[in-house]
């Protein structure tokens, strides 16, 4: 049974993938829907099984096979063939071959469209099915199906009088015409021409995704009203297998490939009518070939729209494409919102503070003096004492200023592009307006990302043009050259390598900040005027405890007598994670030079790894006295699905649930040698701002790393001791 586990998972996912899902229960419901017509169900099963076995024996990437990516198109081909032709051995042979062919067509389009970051959707199904429909006109041994004429007889043979009565009861329910058409359209995705199938497919969609369900209704009714406005009888989309185009388009562009929000819902008002126009026009063409359009309008619309979005230079329309597909509109939304809250100003290349110790922002972005217009995104940094002064004595000399002659560091790895190193330092109170920027270094970090450090001390710049520099490397000293009346460090990011280039709004990563009486550790951010900032000095105990090395194992013994083993791994997409050997649970993380961030969890929420994921959600390897870190969770990571059902319906517009994280650091230890460090924190779940539940946790870190971990709430209390790593 263990050897067939992959097949069962892939089989159910293949059914669910028709609606962009990997939910096993949804897949089970949809599989059952296909068996309303027994032969449709059987031939669909044979087709998808053939595709999965083909992918397995070809050695395709197993996670993609398990997700059903190569199975759902074959499934659609199988059920389509069984509708058109009589069940017989020859049809079974055709279904098997078509299942194999569909896999190869899917691989081809995965390669072609994948280059542009686009999905292949149901294009393999369409091309293979059209090919078979044209070819089978010459296959005289294949008889056209007449089973629809005797459908009730077949139901009777399958489930007796009770099944027939239930089927007729459903068809006699006085639904509004549009509701009947909706159920017929959603059932037609699996070539089922009855309300019974459509209702249960819609029910499965509701269970799988509340957002997906509401989008299916929205897409369908926009098309319904559009057809009425055009004066086209709606039965033409109800019974010709094209009504589902609007349902699938709405789900795909409203919440699956694009993060669902009010803008995606509004965009459907324009996208769905375009899909309808494409469908109506294509039908005129394919009618001449005696071929239906199937899901071709859906494919064209989605691919054109997604491809068009790739040419944007900004997101003024408010449509954000998926960067980590969670196979659920709700999960996509919650994780995207959470990622924006945590790393929203983030950047592909982190830029760090260019100095040691604590410095003050004496002019920030949109500053009062020189940071204006095209040069508004910049900082001036100085050092202040406890009284807020930037100099000793009277401040008459440059050497009186605390920041003068202090080391300037490379803010990230890069190559020196431009430098000026021979401008005299000004006497205090005077400026050199002819050499506005003074002694300057410009470092290239990547295409269109350069840092510029100005007003440096004459002759202090160490590297030469073309030299490589490393993050944290000393490259110069603070001076008072150029348009500078007193010593300070000017720091900016820009897209071009020239001295005097326009600035860009680019954040600084991983810095400690004291501002308006509050201390915080910022993953990314723009330090404001008067903020005191520094790069925290790494505590080696903390770094050893929470810096996970690929291939390492962590061994734990719990207070329940369980032995738990985790291994540090990296997946095909280079995501790093901890995996529990016993449960298969995975906790994905991002490890910066000074901070550990957990990002995502999959698996058993009663496992020790899940509690560790919650507790170590954000850990800084450096800290000030009594530093308090705060962060927020994606709400689907901390709330159970039953709590989220109602929230899911309103999530694109309003989120009333919240999960918050707090980690408290102790006072810095004094004395010689390593001393144990205790970290305490809590996780708070709330609704409408009212606290619902609080969990508390504690870490004890010894000289050799993590020593113990404790987590407790009203449901669980667990303590684990690290026995080896």
TrEMBL record:
Membrane topology type: Multi-pass membrane protein
Transmembrane segments annotated in the record for this chain: 68-85, 91-109, 116-135, 181-208, 215-234, 240-259, 266-283, 289-309
MF (Gene Ontology): urea transmembrane transporter activity
CDD domains: M23_peptidase (cd12797)
The keyword Cell membrane is assigned to this record: yes
Signal sequence range: none
Origin superkingdom: Bacteria
Pfam families xref list: Peptidase_M23 (PF01551), UT (PF03253)
Keywords: Cell membrane, Membrane, Transmembrane, Transmembrane helix
One GO cellular component term: plasma membrane
Record's subcellular location: Cell membrane
InterPro entries according to UniProt: Ammonium/urea_transptr, Dup_hybrid_motif, M23ase_b-sheet_dom, Urea_transporter
The M23ase beta-sheet core domain, residue ranges: 406-494
Similarity comment: family membership: Belongs to the urea transporter family.
Name of the protein this chain belongs to: Cell wall endopeptidase, family M23/M37
């Amino acid at each position: 049974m263990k050897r067939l586990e992959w097949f069962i998972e892939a089989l159910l996912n293949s059914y669910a993938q028709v609606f962009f899902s990997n939910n096993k229960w949804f897949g089970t419901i949809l599989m059952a829907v296909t068996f309303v017509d027994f032969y449709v169900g059987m031939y669909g099963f044979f087709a998808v099984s053939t595709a999965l076995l083909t992918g397995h024996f070809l050695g395709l990437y197993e996670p993609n096979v398990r997700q059903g990516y190569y199975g759902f198109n074959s499934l659609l081909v199988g059920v389509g063939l069984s509708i058109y032709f009589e069940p017989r051995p020859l049809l079974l042979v055709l279904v098997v071959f078509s299942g194999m062919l569909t896999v190869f067509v899917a691989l081809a389009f995965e390669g072609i469209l994948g280059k542009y970051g686009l999905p292949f959707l149901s294009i393999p199904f369409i091309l293979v099915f059209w090919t078979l429909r044209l070819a089978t006109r010459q296959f005289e041994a294949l008889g056209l199906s007449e089973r629809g004429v005797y459908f009730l007889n077949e139901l009777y043979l399958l489930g007796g009088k009770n099944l027939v009565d239930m089927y007729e009861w459903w068809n006699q329910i006085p639904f509004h015409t549009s509701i009947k058409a909706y159920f017929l359209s959603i059932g037609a995705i699996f070539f089922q021409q009855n309300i019974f199938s459509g209702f249960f497919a819609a029910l499965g969609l509701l269970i799988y995704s509340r957002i997906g369900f509401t989008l299916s209704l929205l897409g369908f009714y926009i098309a319904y009203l559009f057809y009425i406005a055009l004066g086209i009888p709606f039965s033409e989309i109800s019974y010709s297998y094209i009504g589902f185009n609007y349902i699938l388009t709405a789900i795909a562009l409203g919440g699956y490939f694009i993060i669902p929000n009010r803008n995606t819902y509004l965009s459907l008002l324009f996208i769905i009518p375009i899909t309808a126009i494409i469908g109506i026009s294509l039908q005129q063409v394919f009618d001449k070939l005696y071929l239906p359009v199937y899901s071709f309008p859906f494919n064209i619309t989605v691919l054109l729209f997604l491809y068009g979005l790739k040419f944007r230079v900004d997101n003024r329309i408010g449509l954000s494409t998926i960067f980590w597909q969670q196979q659920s509109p709700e999960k996509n939304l919650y994780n995207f919102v959470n990622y924006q809250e945590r790393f929203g100003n983030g950047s592909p290349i982190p830029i760090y503070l260019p100095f040691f110790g604590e410095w003050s922002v004496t002019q920030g972005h949109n500053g009062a003096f020189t940071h204006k217009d095209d040069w508004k995104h910049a900082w001036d940094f100085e050092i202040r004492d406890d009284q807020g002064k930037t100099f000793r004595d009277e401040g008459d000399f440059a050497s009186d200023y605390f920041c003068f002659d202090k080391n300037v560091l490379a803010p990230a790895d890069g190559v020196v592009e431009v430098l000026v190193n021979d401008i005299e330092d000004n006497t205090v109170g005077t400026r050199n307006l002819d050499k506005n920027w003074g002694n300057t270094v410009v470092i290239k970090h990547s295409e269109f990302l350069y840092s510029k450090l100005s007003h440096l001390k004459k002759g202090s710049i160490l590297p030469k043009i073309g030299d490589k520099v490393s993050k944290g490397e000393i490259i110069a000293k603070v001076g008072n050259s150029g348009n500078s009346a007193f010593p300070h460090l000017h720091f900016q990011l820009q897209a071009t390598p020239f001295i005097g280039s326009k600035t860009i709004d680019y954040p600084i990563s991983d810095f400690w900040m004291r501002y308006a009486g509050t201390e915080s550790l910022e993953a990314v951010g723009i330090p404001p005027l008067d903020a005191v900032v520094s790069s925290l000095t790494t505590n080696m105990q903390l770094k050893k405890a929470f810096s996970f090395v690929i291939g390492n194992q962590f061994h734990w013994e719990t207070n329940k007598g369980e032995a738990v083993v985790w291994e540090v791994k990296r997946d095909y997409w280079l995501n790093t994670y901890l995996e529990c050997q016993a449960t298969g649970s995975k906790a994905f993380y991002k490890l910066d030079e000074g901070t550990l961030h957990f990002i995502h969890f999959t698996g058993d929420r009663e496992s020790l790894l899940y509690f560790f994921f919650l507790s170590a959600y954000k850990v800084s390897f450096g800290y000030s006295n009594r530093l308090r870190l705060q962060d927020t969770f994606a709400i689907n990571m901390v709330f159970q699905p039953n709590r989220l059902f109602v929230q899911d319906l309103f999530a694109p517009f309003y989120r009333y649930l919240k999960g918050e994280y707090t980690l408290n650091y102790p006072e810095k230890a004094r004395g010689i040698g390593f001393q144990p460090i205790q970290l305490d924190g809590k996780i708070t779940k709330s609704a409408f701002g009212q606290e619902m539940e609080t969990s508390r946790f504690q870490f004890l870190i010894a000289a050799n790393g993590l020593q113990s971990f404790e987590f407790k709430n009203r449901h669980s209390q667990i303590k684990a001791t690290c026995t080896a790593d």
